[in-house]
Structure formats: C-alpha cells, structure tokens
Amino acid sequence: MTMPLNFLWPQFLWLLLLVPLVVLGYWAIQRRKRRLALRFASLSIVKEAMGKGPGWRRHVPPLLLLLAFTAMLLAAARPMAVVTLPSQQQTIILAMDVSGSMRATDVEPNRLVASQNAAKAFIAELPRHVKVGIVAFAGTAQVVQPPTINREDLVAAIDKFQLQRATAIGSAIVVALAELFPGQGIDLAAMTYGRANDPFSPQGRPIDVPRDPPKAFVPVEPGSYGSAAVILLSDGQRTTGVALDEASQMAAERGVRVYTVGVGTVEGEIIGFEGWSMRVRLDEDGLKGIASTTKGEYFYAGTAETLKKVYESLSTRLTVEKKETEISGLLALLASLLTMLAAGLSMWWFNRVV
Q: What topology does CATH give the domain 87-302?
C-alpha cells in the first residue's frame, strides 16, 4: 500500500478531534481516582491490603479501545489507497513472430526456439483461470489458438510454429484486437486490402443483404482496459501489413496495453535461406513505439536466459496489479479486532470488561 491516503468523505475527518477529548477525559478520570485514594489515612496500609496493583496493565485496554475508536473514525471518511491486488486481466494474447529472421542464432539455439521455450514457461507460471490465446505472424497474422485455459493446447500450438517470409507486426496487433473484441467488426483483410470485398461496403454489398447500422466506437483512455493484455514478441523489423502506428493507435483507443519483447541483438547476423541471404537486426524503435502508445512496456531480450527472465517478469506484472481501492472495510476490521483484544485482556487481568 502506498501513501498518502485519499478520502471520499474527507469532512468526516473532523471527527478525529474527538480523540484528544477522549484522552483528556481518561486523564481526568484517573486523576479523580488518585484524589479519592488520598482520602485514606494511610496509603501504605491500603496498598498492603490490596497487594500488588495492576500497574501499567490498567492502561492497555483503554489504549486499545482508543486505537479502535480512531480506526472507526478513519473508516467513516472512506479512505482510498493504492494496494496490490490480484489482476483482473482474464485474457492474455501472445503474438509471436514466426518470420524467417527468427532463425537467427544470435539468441541460442535460435530466436524462434528460445521464444517458444520462454513462452511455454510463461504459460506454465500463469494462474489456471487466466485464458491465453496465441497469434502467429509472418507475412500475415492469424489466430493459431483461441483464448483457452487448456495449457496443453497452448503448448501444442506453440510447438507447431513454422517459419515463413516477411513480418507483419501491425497485423498481429489487429488480429489480437479482433480476438479480444469480436463484436467490433475489426477486419484485417479490409484494413490490408481495402473494402472492395466487404459485404457491408456500398460497392461490395449485394442489394438483398440487410445491413445493420454500425455501432459507434467510443475511444477510451489508453491502458484503461483491465480485462486483457497483449504480449508481442518480435525482432521488430516490420516489412509488410498494417502500419505500426495505425495498429498501436487501435490498441490505445481500446485501452489495451501491448507489452513488447525485442528478441535478438542490435548488431544481428547474416542468415541465408533458399538461396538468399540478409542481415537481420533487432529494431527496438518500432517495438518501443508500440509500448509507449498503448501504455505498455518494452523489454529487451538479447539472450535465451534474458528472454526467460522477461517472461517471468511479465507473469508477475500481469497476475497482480496496483489499484486504488477503498480500505474502510479493513479499518473497520482492525477496530473490531482491537476492541475484542481490549475486552479479552480486561477479562483476563481484571475479571471485568474494560
């Protein structure tokens, strides 16, 4: 929990002025008791007759009651605090690069295998109630495993990855959003190739096909959607598909955070395949831009071990979250416990309730 506290009803904090009045009242009562004791002819005789007095213990139950009273007054003001709670993100989409550049061995044994192993370890660490979906992307992007809690299906989908040409990072984000918001009509094909084949467009819709009025889309605050997140792993070199800024803006307008993981090295290496060769470098700027626009975070994974640690960190970040919440219930519980403790000690020490 972090301080300071915010209060929904701060006007009730004036009631805390009652606390010093209670202290003064208790002090007055104790002073009056001492005056009454001095009326006896010999105070030493009284002490001898009563035996050893309660000493400091007589002040403990009243002190506990004072603390309970203070906690109840604070609870009345309805305090708000930032606390760490289990995350409400129920769905995570893993968008994983399967382009030819992922065969580079600057991350051992190569980028693809290292990312597969790290992704499987990440899935194993997630709480069982969290759904995970997988999007694979190269020249285009597709859902290879819809969101599920079945970890075996997820592992099987990851093991089936096959390398292909080109890298459509923006398309992967669009496909992930379409999976998270199936009712919004997000269409990758329409964004990539235009709307000529869209049955709901004026030029592509048959006259006998009824057209439902499109629902107005209302953008939300970036990073405000707490039910899902996207983790995108790539070497960051987009070569085709939807532009990164367009896809990032779509995610930001829906409040979805995109956490990007850059795998590989900035220097890269030269790879060859089917008679061609090229140098593949990690393009961090593009991945950082995605994370910045969507209020996510960028992680660099230059080695297989680092990649595993990145996924471990993401697992922690996505299973707990800091959230401002009302804690008046906790203060009321504390007041109850202090009251019960005061009554118990009073009964134990003095055979009476406070």
A: Rossmann fold (3.40.50)
